[in-house]
Amino acid sequence: MSEPSQEQRIAEAVARLTGTLELVENTDAVELVAGFIDAGGAVRFSQLLEARPAVSGAQKTEGLVALETRVLGRLAEIEARLDDGFTHAFRPRYRLTTAARAWSTLGQFGLLAGGPRIDAAAFKKACRSLWAPYNEFLETHLKRLRFALRDLRVEVGRALSLAGPTAAELGALDHAFMVAAQGVIDDLYRRITPGMEALFAARLRAILKDTDPLDSDAFSAGFGEGGWLGEILLDARALYHALLGREGRRLCDLVKSASALDSSAGVR
Fold first, then answer.
1. Is residue 136 domain-resident?
2. Three-class SS string for 239-259?
3. Inside any domain, residue 106
């Protein structure tokens, strides 16, 4: 059986994390904008549009070609750093919970008896303890991804503001949309790692309930890079790639649109 493609893994990860994040390619621009802006965001969007200054000056389309190349290069760097982190996730430097430590912790909470009856309070405490290092790992890489994309967007916006009136106008509209949609976007990002934790808890609970008697070797095989725990990390990696790909496409499309608009403006 062949390994799933990146696209397949992304689709499967999102399917398993239903309710965590919706990645919907919507061709209706008005509906897309409306879906990302809440009531408060709509007010901010309107205010920013009214307050944006008029921009004049010559077109500088040639600079936008270089900007697109620079954006693609930066996106590749961000992707490489993201892949490096997940590739080495189970190395000692990240200090993720090992199978041996997990087995010991579950024993301390009296959760290794097997069978359908599990002490809910004990399981919750043990699960939180085991998941904490993974949550920190995922949160750290998600923040790094967001900060890198934010910095790149600022760089693109600054370049568009200097590339001529049409490009500057498009950059201003994009900035207004991002400010207006920030609340909704932040909420989507906040739901990612809790969704991963819920998946971890569900898998761990199923193992404790359905395996009788529990075997440390079998548990160790699952609680690692090549087992069900590794699959959760692969889901997270695929989801982060989807976020990077979506934002990367938006940035590239923004630059391409500015270039096309400035070219058409220059011949009118």
1. yes
2. HHHHHHHHHHHHHHHHHHHHH
3. yes
Query: How many CA within 13 A on the CB side of residue 192?
Result: 29
The residue range of the domain holding 141 is 58-267
Distances (CA, A) of 105 to 102, 112, 163, 222, 243: 5, 10, 59, 16, 34
Region of residue 159 (phi > 0: left; psi between -120 and 50: alpha; otherwise: beta): alpha
Q: Name the 3-class secondary structure at 209.
A: helix
Tens digit of each residue's pLDDT (9 = 90 or more) over 175-188: 777 777 777 788 88
pTM over 0.85: no
* 152/46 Cα distance (integer angstroms): 25
Count of the separate structural domains present in the chain: 1
In angstroms, the CA 5 to CA 60 distance is 40
* C-beta atoms surrounding 90 within 10 Å: 15
